[in-house]
Amino acid sequence: MSMTQVYQWCSWFKDGRTSLQDEPRCGRPNTANNDWNTVRVDELIKVDRRVKLVEIFLKLEIPKTNVYEIVHNKLGYRKVSATWVPKMLSDEHKRQRVEISQILLHRCQQEGDETVDVGPGGDHRARNKLLEHLVTGDETWLHLNTPETKRDSMTWKHPSSPVTKKFKVQQSATKVMAIVFWDSRGMILLHILTKGDSVNADQYCEKLDRLRYAVRRKRPGLLRS
């Protein structure tokens, strides 16, 4: 409410007005927010979820303010962006992930946690046996030149200190692909692909052989065979 409206209402109350409701006035009543227009707007949105308010206004010839009122307040719609996902998985991939997750969950429930002593003070903490036997891996791009971020270059200054400047530097266009395997205690294997190589089935079979050797060397007793 603007200050002009506030002063106007104060003047009305001083003159003896006690009601907060608008008084009856002449003019055409607002008929755009009726049930028929609400149904029409709802049908348009269901046909095209990306339709814009201005398009609804042009197609149905309903005032923009009424379109907004119907869409947001009466129908309860709100426009949101789609959620980005790393990959589009097939039904078979989804089924495999569900099965593996169920197996791991069952093992986690069966093996449970155990309490171990940590530190000379006799402190205790819970340790999950399953998590200590899991090794996971992923691929990532490594830039040969990663510039310092603006947050990393922050310094303490007094109000009278001169303003520091930092030139914007782009990441290096030269990058390499790295395959990393790790567990709960840290990294086990890091392999940098040579230029021109691609991550395929043959590459992964070779890396799994290297991983087996690295696990036996860095995590003795983790492998049963």
From TrEMBL:
InterPro entries registered for this protein in UniProt: RNaseH_sf, Transposase-MT_Hybrid, Transposase_1
Task: Extract one GO molecular function annotation from the record.
Answer: nucleic acid binding
Record PANTHER family: MARINER MOS1 TRANSPOSASE-LIKE PROTEIN (PTHR46060)
Q: What is this protein called?
A: Histone-lysine N-methyltransferase SETMAR
- Specify the species: Plakobranchus ocellatus
Highest classification ranks of the organism: Eukaryota, Metazoa, Spiralia, Lophotrochozoa, Mollusca
